[in-house]
Design brief:
Chain lengths: ~300, ~325
């Protein structure tokens, strides 16, 4: 515990700006992963524990695309779409057979894939840490803000994620697709009796969730180093975000992600060893007071 | 049958005098006990816990720390750590059983990771991420010298079989059948006058306490305690073991622990990409058999074998 360092930081505006922007970045990436997780859970009732690995795949796909094409936008699209396709195939082949099994079976299938994908990444991209580096488009001088400096890429990432959150909530709440998705979350059998192809719908939702995780990976690539273990830690954190925000709630995931991001950024100064502990303590508290999470409604 | 099995294993290990075999038997008894205790919760009471390693880690650390003070004997340190684990299980369990299904599991995971974070950050007491350093002393007691590998081995085996028999008595007792009813039909159990919450709590405490026994044995065996004893991967491994072996057969978790240890041993020895192979094996078991190996065997061998083996255990 290092309270003086934390107090020092809070009293200096440049440190606050740095930490808040770092926290926001963590929060945005967490939201992208957690929103996919929460969407899949809300509709399919499956906790996709491989979601962290999807994030990892997104990062590596975009790395390769970036090296080949040299364009960061192509890289993001490659990461997001590549993982979306992978997610749909994964859902059809491996998750759909265990929809009606107990949660442990689903857990085990996901766990098997965490192990497999980690090793596949090791085989294809090697075990060493890899970095993409900041793409030329964003290699600009940092923006001066309230006495602190913020890299332009952070602004881009935050803006893009907020836009994604907004479109996602419009998609779920205002469109016909969203209506079907919400109906499937309530009663799948009834929906398929009404002539909707629910298998296709499930695959689409899973694909959308995977797309978000892949996009998160691609967006993280310039600011994070990549290693085959990167999926594990983000899985745990986005899981915490999902639970705190309420499983199935996208708005909840957004607020919880920002909260966790900020806790993480300031906790790393004040309590470097106990940051995880702080988050788990917070999660336990939320579960005990309101088990459905802060915004716990189905697909609010 | 169990007793003769115990004797056979001990005799075999002592005559073979093969350190690798002895190591396997010891690890099997530690993780078998751990998986068995988890299955008491998951299989019999229907409470899917993701944080079972909490008790394993607690037992290992409590025992290791007590022994390192140099003031207590092994039996006393053992009793105190188990009592401590029981107290921990009562307090955590009382909070967790208020939640249902997946939320119960997540809350147990949260408490486990909290313990893990405490172990990591309380460096002066626990040694942080290095684990308990300096070894755990094994002073002789009551004429037993655990520093002697053979004596340690025999004692560990007797300890293991004793606890397995105890658990078996429990699951075949009225208490065990009440647990199954609480799992399958809580409303009916309530209507018959069983306090559902009290049964769940009892299962949680008993299961946690037995896991702490496994933790104590582990810390004695490896002469140390490490943060990964309380990490979520060990909770995951426990679930893996019971799913591999089978949840409906009493000895399933122990078989699962054996399969898990053997697989791990073979895979890490033969390939660099252990996760890949392990993952594929897992997928085959889950999607191919759709149940644990012993469940599968028993269903194939028919009810005769099930009756026979479940009677003799």
């Amino acid at each position: 515990m290092n309270l003086p360092a934390l107090l020092d930081c809070v009293s200096s505006s440049s440190c606050v700006v740095t930490q808040v922007s770092t926290g926001l970045i963590i929060g945005m990436l967490l939201f992208l992963v957690a929103s996919g997780l929460t969407l899949i859970f809300g509709v399919l009732g499956v906790i996709n524990f491989t979601h962290g690995s999807f994030y990892m795949l997104g990062a590596y796909f975009s790395l390769t695309a970036y090296r080949v094409t040299g364009s960061y936008f192509d890289a993001v699209i490659a990461g997001a779409l590549g993982v979306a396709v992978f997610g749909v195939v994964f859902e059809r082949l491996f998750i759909s057979p265990v929809y009606n099994s107990n949660v442990l079976m689903q857990l085990l299938v996901c766990y098997a894939f965490i192990l497999i994908l980690d090793d596949v990444v090791k085989i294809v991209w090697g075990t060493d840490f890899q970095t993409m580096g900041m793409p030329a488009t964003f290699a600009l001088p940092p923006i001066h803000l309230f006495g602190g400096f913020v890299p332009p890429f952070y602004v881009f990432l935050t803006g893009l994620t907020v836009a994604a959150a907004f479109s996602l909530s419009v998609l779920v709440n205002k469109t016909r697709f969203g209506k079907l998705v919400r109906a499937a979350a309530v009663n799948r059998q009834m929906l398929s009796c009404l002539g909707v192809n629910t298998s296709l719908l499930y695959a689409a939702v899973f694909g959308l969730g995977s797309l978000l995780a892949g996009a998160a990976g691609a967006l993280a690539a310039p600011v994070r180093s990549m290693s085959p273990e990167m999926g594990f830690s983000i899985l745990i954190e986005s899981f915490i975000v999902t639970v705190i925000g309420g499983m199935g709630s996208i708005i909840g995931a957004f607020f919880a992600a920002v909260l966790v991001g900020i806790i993480r950024a300031f906790g790393s100064i004040g309590y470097p060893l106990f940051t995880d502990g702080l988050m788990f303590a917070f999660m336990a508290l939320v579960l005990l007071v309101k088990p459905t999470g802060l915004f716990g409604r189905k697909l609010a | 049958m169990a007793l003769s099995g115990c004797l056979v294993v001990i005799a075999l290990a002592l005559t073979l005098d093969n350190p690798q075999f002895a190591d396997f038997v010891l690890r099997l008894s530690i993780f078998g006990l751990y998986a068995l205790s988890l299955n008491l919760l998951v299989g019999y009471a229907g409470l899917v816990s993701f944080g079972h390693a909490m008790f394993f880690g607690f037992g290992a650390y409590a025992f290791g720390l007590l022994m390192q003070t140099g003031l207590v004997s092994i039996p006393l340190a053992f009793v105190v750590s188990i009592a401590g684990a029981a107290v921990l299980a009562v307090s955590v369990g009382a909070l967790c059983i208020r939640l249902k299904d997946i939320y119960f599991g997540i809350l147990t995971l949260a408490f486990q990771m909290l313990l893990h974070a405490v172990i990591l950050s309380w460096v002066s007491l626990t040694g942080g991420d290095q684990g308990l350093q300096g070894g755990i002393p094994r002073p002789p007691f009551l004429g037993v010298d655990l520093g002697n590998p053979k004596q340690f081995f025999v004692l560990a085996c007797v300890f293991f079989f004793g606890l397995v028999l105890l658990v078996r008595q429990m699951v075949e007792s009225p208490f065990g059948y009440s647990l199954r009813m609480v799992r399958d039909n809580p409303e009916r159990a309530l209507a018959l006058g069983l306090s559902v919450q009290r049964y769940k709590l009892a299962a949680f405490v008993i299961s946690g306490t037995i896991a702490a026994n496994a933790g104590v044995l582990m810390s004695l065996y490896v002469s140390g305690a490490y943060p990964n004893f309380a990490y979520w991967t060990l909770s995951g491994d426990g679930i893996l073991m019971i799913m591999l072996g089978g949840m409906t057969v009493f000895l399933g978790p122990i078989a699962g622990a054996g399969i898990f240890l053997m697989l791990n041993g073979i895979i890490t020895r033969t390939t660099e990409y252990s996760g890949l192979v392990m993952g594929i094996v897992l997928l085959c078991v889950v999607l191919g058999l759709r149940r644990g190996v012993l469940d599968f065997v028993f269903e194939r061998c028919g009810p005769w074998a099930v009756r026979r083996l479940s009677r003799e255990g």
